[in-house]
Amino acid sequence: MISDAGVHVTLHETELVRLEVAAAPRAELTLWCRFDPDWVPAGAEATPVVRLHFTDVVVESMEVDEDGWDLASGSDAQVRLLDYAAGDWFRLQTWALLVDFRAAHADLSLHPAEPG
């Protein structure tokens, strides 16, 4: 994917640090991912946090490996893939989380830090 700043972003080099869901006024899903310091792409050194914002979202399934889930550890939160097909179907997979959802729109931007 290409960010709004023209930086090539590869999500499997990031860790999911935050997942936000809003139901109203329209369903939204926001993913905040942070690059490993050793894998920040050229042009993103000052903005190592990726924000993916999806609108008009329908979450079809979510599976959590509760035995292995530890977002704070980082390793379980490494993004394995973000896939999409059929125009509006997405799959997010980390080592301990699997989410299948549909979204009408997605946008990607880079930030200096995730929200507090």
Describe the structure.
- With 116 residues, the protein is mostly beta strands.
- The protein has one domain (11-111).
- Helices cover 0% and strands 49% of the residues.
- It has no helices and eight strands.
- The chain has strands at residues 14-22, 28-35, 49-55, 58-64, 79-85, 89-94, 97-102, 105-111.
- Strands 1-2-3-8 form a four-stranded antiparallel β-sheet, with no helix packed on it. It has a four-stranded antiparallel β-sheet with strand order 4-7-6-5, with no helix packed on it.
- The protein starts with 13 loop residues before the first strand and ends in a 5-residue tail after the last strand.
What's the number of domains? 1
The pLDDT mean sits at 87
Quick one: overall form?
globular
Instruction: From the alpha carbons, calculate the radius of gyration and give it in angstroms.
Output: 14 Å
Largest sheet: 4 strands, antiparallel
Give the structural class. Answer: mainly beta
Report strand order across the widest sheet.
Answer: 1-2-3-8
Strand content: over 45%
* Helix-residue proportion: under 10%
Q: Give the SSE string.
A: EEEEEEEE
Low-confidence stretches: none
What's the helix count? 0
Number of strands: 8
Distance between the termini: 25 Å
